[in-house]
Amino acid sequence: MTSIQAQGTVLITGASPGIGAIPAGRFVDQSYLMGVAAALFGALAWSLNFVVPFVIGDYSIFDFALFRFVIPAALGMLFLLYKRDAIRALTRTDWLTTFFLGFIGYLAYFLTVAGAAIFAGPVIAPAFLGLVPVVLAIAGNLTRKVVSWRALSLSVLLTMVGLAFVNASILDATSMASAGSPAIGILLAMAAVGLWTWFGLANQKALAARPNFDAHIWTALILAGGGLEMLAFGPIGLALGVFNIPLLGLGWENAAPIYIWGTALAVFASIGGALAWTFASQRLPVALSAQLLVSETIFGTIFGLAVHGRLPTLIEAGGLAVLTAGVLVTIRVFHGTAKPSHA
After folding, report:
1. Cα separation of 35 and 23, whole Å?
2. Per-domain residue ranges for the chain?
3. pTM for this structure?
């Protein structure tokens, strides 16, 4: 990213060096929209996590996670090997930071999201995870004020109203029928909210301290960390009996869903989503990228309903419409904060 002090840049008020700096002139809209598009793509990719427990047959989410994280970790390490000259310049802090981010933002977050979907069902889990953008936007604006609280309040309010509408399905018999244990699912969803808020703030802070860091290398390091940590968990998981691979084997007849979905999400969600989010984090303030995460709830609910072969109830549809309105309001509010530089 171009330094914030460089001539010809404008700043979204309150953003730190390298975060939220948008080239002036005709590139203002282009840089901003590229960041928004990247954040939305990342949300779309990650929303597929909500359907994983319902498409992998008798295999567990831990079996799936082994494929989901080890494949991109291997590809990430191959990329790092290719970039070995740049890797030599990394500090121990760079390695520790990215590996920690890989744990809280990818491995731990994925497991809590998938667990929430198992216990709370395809609608309730993503509905509660809609709290992520609210909590992260407020925390981000507290940490680094980008827009006035008055401007932010409308998009947050729309998110909360939409979340309440979608969440009303907890009382619906159809949704309850697919929920094994809503209380456990909600607790796991809340844990995921905390993990992602932590990741969003920590990742943004780390990138702000490294404004010129290559997004591809940063993403590869995080993915490598998440995959290695999953491998390290392997012996513990085997001892706890959470893996079904020893019982079901890895023959194509049984394991085809694991191979297909594991590879698809490894490429689309792990690599594509992670790279898109790094790209967005380098161009947008955390309060904006956080609110764009509302779209993950929208996509996740739609995919969950599709897997279960039913249409949304009237209240659910209304909630999705309000959440979508909140995303559009957020984009407009933050786009209005870009002002020409007078430097």
Report:
1. 12
2. 9-335
3. 0.73
